[in-house]
Amino acid sequence: MKLVKKLFYVLGVVSLFGVTNVSASELAAKEIVFNAFNYLGTLDKYTFDAVIYDKYNVGNGQEENFKHLVSVSLNRPGKLRVDIKGDTRDRTSYINDGVFTMIDHDFGYYGQLKTPKSIDGALDFIVKKYGIVAPLTSLLYSDMTKRVKFSRSKNFGVQNIGGVTCDYVAFKNKKKEVHIWITRGDRPLIKAYSVIEVGKKDTFRVDTSLTWKDGSNIKNSDFVFNAPKGVTKISIESAK
């Protein structure tokens, strides 16, 4: 069974958040996901590939579905590259020691900004001032344990995802549920996760599966942007 199909199956049969009081399993869920984020924060470099499925219920029984492939290379403290290609986007974004570059391959233009030199600082800067959000941002910060805020959590136990033994935990606030599968052992990495909007008529759902690599083949040249011939440079306007 493919990983994405497995995710749909699991979420379809589990009764989610049936317990309203805080329990030992809820505390364990937070500890499991915090261990994963803390582990990522200790790594100087890593790469991963992701497959993302977006599903939107647009009303009258209609759905819109989109698929994107994402490749990420990260080298702390200040180098990041994100390539995304799929149904709605074909872009590459770079953070290279204080310079952010984003190129849209479909439209043939690119823009650049000066940012803080660290990856964390650069991501915060482009989100707050320009409204630009990189895909899979929660897997890029070094301090995600300080950023995650959910009112409820639950540990659903151990499950096999794509042949890998994982802890299955979930978190919920007023706007969304997040379901996460994390590999067990000394390298607690997020194998897959789903984000589900709650409380609205027109809802969305995002299912993501991840393949991790150790980053041993990362080169400094991976983060250097060279404008292709015929591509136009444009200004990036502040979101404020």
Q: What is the spatial order of strands in the main beta sheet?
A: 7-8-9-10-11-1-2-3-4-5-6-12
At the fourth level of CATH, the homologous superfamily is Lipoprotein localisation LolA/LolB/LppX
Number of helices: 3
C-alpha-based Rg, rounded: 19 Å
CATH class label:
Mainly Beta
Largest sheet: 12 strands, mixed
Number of domains: 1
DSSP summary, beta strand count:
12
Shape: globular
Provide the β-strand percentage band: 35-45%
N-to-C order of helices and strands = HHEEEEEEHEEEEEE
Give a verbal description of the structure:
With 240 residues, this protein is α+β, with helices and mostly antiparallel strands. The chain has a single domain, classed as Clam (outer membrane lipoprotein receptor (LolB), chain A). The protein is 18% helix and 43% strand. It has a 12-stranded mixed β-sheet, sandwiched between helices. Strand 1 and strand 2 form a beta hairpin. The N terminus is likely disordered.
Task: Provide keyphrases for this structure.
240 residues, outer membrane lipoprotein receptor (LolB), chain A, alpha+beta, twelve-stranded mixed beta sheet
A few lines on this structure:
The chain is an alpha+beta fold.
Q: What is the strand and helix layout of this fold?
A:
Layout: H1 3-13, H2 24-42, E1 45-59, E2 62-75, E3 79-86, E4 90-96, E5 99-104, E6 109-114, H3 119-130, E7 152-161, E8 164-172, E9 176-183, E10 190-197, E11 204-213, E12 232-233
Parallel strand pairs: 6-12
Antiparallel strand pairs: 1-2, 1-11, 2-3, 3-4, 4-5, 5-6, 7-8, 8-9, 9-10, 10-11
